[in-house]
Amino acid sequence: MQSSDMSSRTFRSQDAVRLIDENTYADTMLNTVRPALASCREEGRFDPSEAERAAGLEPIGGTLHYLAYDAAKFDTEREQGATATFRGCIVISHGFTEFAEKYDELVWYFLLAGYSVCVLDHRGHGKSARDVDSRCLVWIDDWRRYVADFAGFASSVGQRYANGQPLNLFCHSMGGGIGAAVLEQYPTLFDKAVLSAPMIAPQTGMPLWLARALAGVFCGIGLGRKGVFGQVDFDPDAPIDMSLYKDSSEARERWYHRLRCETVEYQTYRAAFEWVRQALKLSRAVLDPSACADIVTPMLLFQAGRDIWVLNEPQNLFVRRVQDGGGTAKLVRIDESAHEIFSMPNEVYQPYLERILAFYDTPLLGGE
């Protein structure tokens, strides 16, 4: 089931994507990538109320921000290395405290490969609706709201950008937990799915049963909208501490930090107790064997060997249960990677990206 061989199947050589040089990363992002993305980008708001009602949830108001990129418009830019073939749409589900614009580099590569891309800011993140006053705090009342919102977005905006071609999923960390639940509850929505270091279960620093009990107690005494003890707000005036990202690409981490400093809506940085409680409920629901057996979408799950934010063993269990239920799932372990595989140096990122593109591009009957 597991594999650390990232070269067994690569994207077709004539379509290979050349990664941005880390030595000129910021200049390339500013002067090449972002102008090209702006030329094909739609910025919009998605009203999730209908999707939430359909899922049996009472809407709590507010709209969700998204960025969408049209491959046909991108083609008019005639970027070097871009394919002339339209392959469908990839919908991205981002991680905890992230935001759509953080994925600009990955969006660039997907566009070069012929895919339109849609990225939703999950509730409480980026420029989407929030339900707490703190700019840094992430709160959610019910994990099922994340799932309903994302499925509603993918089935409307995502399908429009797919334009009759395959609709694929890319999700990371918290977004991977949400994505896994979407695959279980909306089994025909996506044609293929990539889960990158998904939060099948979060790393809490204690046994999950104890974390569930403590989160329940703190929420029960009225601290659900309060930040978890020990976490601090993001300080845009403080320099980035690269010791926290020793395995990652310094150029990429400095770029993300710059984006967060420049935009107050991107400064989510810590969890409310209710978010922790809901993350643990999501984990239990996703790992239910009967739910895993409902997954029919071919799935590729990347596991980071040096992950400190999510647990690896629940990922292994999830893949086994999907397989036991008759689903097509493959786990690829990258021993040398930290949690954000797309933030790693090019020598790790390149084979990871090639594996993703090969998976999306392989016909369903002969896939991974």
Overview in brief:
Residues 87-342 form the Serine aminopeptidase S33 domain. The chain has one domain: Alpha/Beta hydrolase fold, catalytic domain (Rossmann fold, 3-Layer(aba) Sandwich).
CATH homologous superfamily grouping: Alpha/Beta hydrolase fold, catalytic domain
State the helical fraction.
25-40%
Radius of gyration: 19 Å
CATH structural fold name:
Rossmann fold
- Residue-averaged pLDDT, rounded? 94
Q: Major β-sheet, in short?
A: 8 strands, mixed
According to DSSP, the number of beta strands is 10
Shape: globular
Low-confidence blocks of residues = 1-14
Number of helices: 12
Organism: Bifidobacterium panos
Domain Serine aminopeptidase S33: 87-342
InterPro entries: AB_hydrolase_fold, Hydrolase_4, MAG_DAG_Lipase
Protein name: Lysophospholipase
Descriptive notes:
The chain has 368 residues and is α/β, with parallel strands linked by helices. The chain has one domain: Alpha/Beta hydrolase fold, catalytic domain (Rossmann fold). It is 39% helix and 14% strand. It has 12 helices and 10 strands. It has helices spanning 25-39, 49-54, 71-75, 104-112, 143-162, 174-185, 208-223, 250-262, 273-286, 289-292, 312-324, 346-361; strands at 41-46, 64-69, 88-93, 115-120, 137-138, 167-172, 192-196, 270-271, 299-304, 329-334. The strands form 2 sheets. An 8-stranded mixed β-sheet has the order 1-2-4-3-6-7-9-10, sandwiched between helices. A two-stranded parallel ribbon has the order 5-8. Helix 6 (174-185) links the parallel strand 6 and strand 7 (192-196). Helix 1 (25-39) crosses helix 4 and helix 7 (208-223) packs across helix 9. The termini are close together.
